[in-house]
Design a protein that fits this description.
globular, eight-stranded mixed β-sheet, 8 strands, 11 helices, alpha/beta, about 300 residues, single chain
Amino acid sequence: MNSNRMLTNRKNIIFQAEKHPLETRHIHTTLESYCLELVHRKAYEEVAIMSKGLKVLDYGCNDGYGTYIISNYCKEVIGIDVSAIAIKNAKEKYGQQGIEFHLFDGKRTSFDDKFFDRVVSLQVIEHIIDYDDYLNEIKRILTKDGVVLFTTPNATIRLDPGMKPLNPFHVKEFTPIELNNLLKKYFNKVEIRGLFATDVLYNVEYNRLKKGLERARKKPIFPSPWKIKAAFVNGVKAILPNCIYYITKRAFNRLEMGAKRLDKSVMTKYSTNDFFYLENNLEQSLDLMAICSVR
């Protein structure tokens, strides 16, 4: 059990389900935001290639954009999430592609034992309080020769030692050693890889993270603008039903970003092909991937 925050497992699941935003980004105003999308998409493309012809569970699918990427490679994929609005959006976007999406309680899935050849859980473990519930459930539904793949931020370049995550939805961010030590308690074989990129994109993402760390180190007396904005957004979400909130948010985003979009030539120049995984120098990686098996 992770005790980094004074939050029970159940309250954390409810918080993540009701407050965590949808992940898909279609409009970009900076190379930073586009680079971050590429980081997440690269992970899904990588696990999709490793899931060819298999029966896959996308555990923590959000609005299903990554589940769809996997579907182009695997035999069958199902997405699950604790967020009702995320599952609703996933079904609307990708349900007609033959992909199943299910809402679940964050603890026990409805699947039989040894049901999936592959479980992928990308950018999820950092949101978890009860690792026993999370990892033992994944082991239960995984075939005896199955493999589970995790991705998660690399705390080494994001945080100072002992610093709490800057992302309010993250319970704990892991260094490569911490992630390896945790997963070895549950899986016999654990392999950790790190995400890197060509110089331009590596520096874009690395510098974005360092700027966030520098802001956190300054500990301003007054709330930062992004915290004020977050408080306002949470207040609006508390008042409006989820469906109305997200419709309103999308409308404002279109108005705000219409005149400030990132030039298409920049987006054409860079792609997920500029990113790659390595097994060494993990402390300097942009993101971590763990490949685990019971046998």
